[in-house]
Amino acid sequence: MRRTYVDVTTLDQLREAYVTRFEVAGRPVILTRKTNAVHAFDGICTHADYEFVTCRLADGCDIECPMHGARFDAETGEVTDGPAEQPLRRIEVQIEDGIVRLCIDWADTGQTV
Question: Is the pTM of this model over 0.70?
Fold first, then answer.
């Protein structure tokens, strides 16, 4: 099956130690960057369906939900502190010539990322 990718931003525009929020194919997504590694996740907290915002990573390594303070590892999406119990859904990332691209197969199927 062929995967569908869209250009989202450039590597230069993603700040290290930050969560950066985008709207992609009608869904909120968040990206984190550590050196040249970029990780992307569904932009809605698994605890209370609250959307993440662009902000600094908590303690430099965790994505923190602004609603109840749930924390997730910025590289894996795994829960590091509750009240969330489920990890963030990961989104496949490609970087080509400094362009950050995300797989948006969920847009065609109606499935979540």
Answer: yes
